[in-house]
Every structure is written in C-alpha cells, then in structure tokens.
Design goal:
This is KfrA N-terminal DNA-binding domain-containing protein. With 110 residues, the chain is mostly helical. It has four helices and no strands.
Length: 110
C-alpha cells in the first residue's frame, strides 16, 4: 500500500473517530492540499471498506509510526521556528525604535 494512501486512510480514520464524516475535500485540506485526486479517491474508498475495528486500528497504528518518524523533524522545525522568532523580534524592536524616533520628531515640530 502506498504511503500517501496510508496517510489518507489514517487521516480519514482520525476524522471519523472525531465524529467528522471524511470527505475528499476535508481529507485533502488536512493533508495540506497536495494529494493527487486519484490517490485521494482510492484512499477514501479503502477507508470506507474498513470495519469500525479496523478504523480504530488504522488511526492508532499510523499515529504511533508517524510520531516516531516525525520526532527528528520536529526538533529541526523547532530550531527553525526559534530562529525565525528571534529575527521577527529583532525586526519588531527595530520598527518600534523607528516609530519612537518619528514620534519624537513629530512632537518636536508640533
């Protein structure tokens, strides 16, 4: 079974367990919108063929394997986000200083 189709089934199972009826639009949105329609349709069709026990298992099995695989990425992503935050804070501070300087100039002319 394809990895993309596994992700589709996993996402549909999680939605179903959350009380949301999986549709191609919802599943595509949850997966970031980059899923080819033929694979999306095949994954939804396979999901619909699962029993309720298999749905629970699909949601749980994929969750454990996804968390194991994505842990290193999460560290990398966290470091990237921290760097972006630092840059944004510096830009914010610089803009605040410029606004304060402009306000002081305006107060001096008024």
């Amino acid at each position: 079974m394809s990895s993309v189709i596994d992700q589709i089934i996993h996402t549909a199972a999680k939605l179903s367990l959350a009380g949301i009826t999986p549709s191609t639009a919802i599943v595509r949105a949850k997966l970031g919108g980059k899923v080819p329609m033929p694979q999306l349709i095949e994954g939804i069709a396979r999901f619909k063929a699962l029993s309720s026990d298999e749905i629970v298992q699909a949601a749980q099995v994929m969750s454990s394997s996804v968390s194991t695989v994505s842990a290193p990425q999460t560290s990398e992503q966290t470091a990237d986000l921290q760097q972006q935050l630092k840059q944004l804070q510096q830009a914010y501070d610089a803009l605040n200083a410029r606004v304060a300087a402009l306000e002081a100039r305006l107060d001096g002319h008024a």
